[in-house]
Write a structure and sequence with these properties.
CATH class of the largest domain: Alpha Beta
Structural class: alpha+beta
CATH superfamily of the largest domain: Poly(A) polymerase predicted RNA binding domain
Strand content: 5-15%
Strand order of the largest sheet: 1-2-5-4-3
Largest sheet: 5 strands, mixed
Shape: globular
Number of domains: 6
Helix content: 40-55%
Number of strands: 20
CATH architecture of the largest domain: 2-Layer Sandwich
Number of helices: 32
CATH topology of the largest domain: Alpha-Beta Plaits
Length: about 1050
Amino acid sequence: MSFGSSVPYLGVSQPISEQLPLEADILETERLVSTLHSFNFFEPDEELQKRMEVLRQINSMVKEWIVAVTEAKLGADCGFNPGGKLFTFGSYRLGVHTRGADIDSLCVAPRHVDRSDFFGSFYDMLKRDSNVSDLHSVEEAFVPVIKLKYRDIELDVLFARLAAKQIPDDQQLNDDEILRNLDEKSVRSLNGCRVADEILRLVPNGETFKVTLRAVKLWAKNHGIYSNVLGFLGGVSWAILVARTCQLYPNASPSRLLQKFFLVFQNWNWPHPVILRDNDSERRPNIPSLETLVWDPRTSNSDRYHLMPIITPAYPEQNSTFNVTKSTRQVMTAEFEEGLKISTEVFDGKAGWDKLFEEVNFFSRYRHFIALVCLAKTKEDHLVYCGLVESKIRFLVAAFERNPAVNMVHVNPKQFEPLRPLQVPTDHEDCTVTVWFIGLDLNKQLKKNIDLAKEIQLFGDNVYRATQMNPKMYNDDMKVHPSYVRKSDLEKWLPMETLEKGRKVVAKKPERKSEGRNNRKRKLSDANEEVVAKKTLEPFKESSLWDDIKNAMSSHSEMDTKLSKDLLATLESLTPSEDKMTLKRRQNALRELEQLISEWVVQLNAEKNGAEAVSCSGGRLLTCGSYRLGVQDRGSDIDCLCVVPRFVTREDFFDSFFEILRASTRAADVNRIPEAFVPVIKLKFRGFEIDLLFAQVDLLDLPSGAELEERLMDDALIFNLDMKSVRSLNSLRTSCEIRRLLPNEENFRVTLKAVKLWAKRHSIYSNALGFLGGISWTILVARVCQMHPEASPPRLLDAVFRLMTTWKWPEPILLKEASTTSKCRRLDKFVWNPQANQRDQMHLMPIVTPAYPEQNSAVNVSIFHLKVMLRESFEALEMTKEIVERKAPWSRLFEEVNFFSRYKYFVMIGCTAKTREEHNAFSSLVEAKIRVLMGALMESEQFLLAHVSPQKFDPLRKSWNRFSKNWFIGLEPLRGKKDVSIGDQLLYFNNEVFFWAQKMPCFNQLMALNFEFIPARDLGRLTSAEELKKGRPATRKRKYRGETAISKRHHMEVCA
């Protein structure tokens, strides 16, 4: 084996060390390879020859089948050889396959052969072959596959159709252009081969890479962390990690690389991604249909929630570890730490490599387990059903993680055959059975019995729904039985040799999720010792918490009438309605702006189309948000939508129309944010603040008035639009749909005005900063109005606070039943669907918009934000009770609370720029990124609470040639936490802001951020005494300590 290389460095950074291996390293490598041989991890030559022969035979079958399909479709005299080829990928293609491992392969066919042929005639051809056994297809999988054994060699065969007439024997797959015009399933199938080839191209020494990867795979399998489907890492992810280690230590020996592997990834700063190449530096194909598949957290909300991103190097680059959960990452990080410790002992002569690869006894780690028993009547049914159940286990793990009673969840990837008689009921004693075990570390500090029945029930429902979607494949004899098992009862489930196999470990005690005064040990109640999921499927039902108050709110009493009058008078005194003159000026300003838009569109039509210009009436300006709902405040901004025909592009809007606005004497403070999630131009027009969105629709000429609105409400109109236009249109479509679903608009408007005023006065009104924005509060109020259609505004207001504090978050708030039918495949992926998308399962406070594609409007809410909003809602609920009892006036509820009186410590974020325009752009960026800092503070595990005030404060000392604003974040450290350090979090936030700031057209070196961490007593140095005394001081009641008296359990579920 040779070491050393003169090749320029590979990867996204320079190597950490280019030192050549020492004699001791080479000696340890020989011992490492010898140890791998002792574990039978290398395939004998005769088995390798058999694999190659099997692949040749399957390749011949592929060619024969493609010829038959070609003759059937194009005729026997088509005049060309269609070809066809079988490619390999995965471990086999990387050269690290092991004894008895399956072969990942790909059937590549020409354009006239489609996937239905593959799962039809090719499947039948395999079925007729006597060498084939255990044949079954998984056509509905994310990557459709045929699984089989050919002469006892296991194969997974994928399918891809290229946009080519023939597939020659020398066909290559590394050219990105072959992906053009392919469907997503073909792209995913091709990526297996393309990724494997790219990994081999990006490692400095292929031989050392292969030996190291073999060692890592053996270690991962023996430590129970090798399974992509269960939330750990799969083969390609481990290969990318090893390849990145090879890039960082290009000349190291395999033994040293193995040690460095543990060192690098034990200290890796997740969720920073692992990337093998700088994708921006190389030529990328222009294939718009595939851009949505590229992993990019800058533009995709879902990608931001990935916990352990490991990015494939071939286009379209994707995260190979999107299944990883918090618990599985925690388990793997602990294993990295132990691996580093043992590998260091090996180099110190204190241990041998066999200690690293020794199988770990899973059952010695935990005292509590969930057994998932999978039964089917026949072996074939069992194989199919087990694949389905296994794919759903990670959702059960994620559900357990959200339960405050569970510190950690660890699923064992191994499938066991349980002892007979079975510990679960069965209709057939001779059925085929498999069991998975999930280890649980439970939190005994909670003052309640531990109950996992809800999570188990959801899992059972999830599996059952999947079976109902494909009734031909699944039958009633297939069942899954989850069951709680104590460690002492494991001997009833598995033989003793299995329970005692491997090195026993003592699990470290994880940090407790909640604190309590009573630290006595508690046991699971007898009622909860056995939790078994019932295989039932019930339609979604609203929470029953309203049953006890519906009757009291069904009609308006005389007291309600008096309360309503008082509420209206209070709202009018605090937020006076616009006078008729201002309202008329606002309407005139909107008409003038629409006329400006129409003239611009007509001019563009003439410039772009010349003599062939179509008849065009121009663009349209439509209002949305608060203005359309009729709840705008005096002086509030207007959310508007500029709708244009298809020949007008977004670039036209942000270039030529932006310049028209800047040149207009009627417009001021014009600022464009084209890179925002919903691109916008912010301006003042005739003195009124306007947020102007843009939507291009697939029409040549736009109708006017109600006809246009009716067209825009048709879902089919948005099917061919880009996603930014869809998001912009949805602001209008959602507002219209909410109004349509209301039982009483007048009561809704009064209640919504009250809720918005209360939220603003209590510093919890800001979608950008992670609280609820206007649309989320609107949907909440609308849902309460639906629940109590006859209730008066005071009763509705009380019900809003009850909903906030007693709702079983993260159950969703929905205004109408979610659609289960597919409308547009391209847009369906954006629909909020926690059963299909793991990212949606992680949302803490789903408030779903009613217009297609239905999305979570509260996606930015974190644990800190949720705790703050629940605290404020709890206090508001108590206040409304006093108001109803005539112990306090309505003004008390809307009284501004002094933000600075709530907390003992604060972080100040100062934002500075030279000009007003630059400051507006820079401060908008900083505001959008503050929730990144909030997330970093939460991850630091130093604080019980962090609360950012949405208000921007003027600095105490202003600079005559600078524009500055400050934000403040109130901090409540964990009990007993005296020394807190947030330097790393602030540095991360600073880097994140300036990474994006440098992409702004107006960016310059005079834009600056400054931070200060100060106790409350020193706030006078940073802001005025007037601000520090503004509002009533906050009172922290002993009754509220992270849970509500109304629904302590539900609150703890989301806040622990």
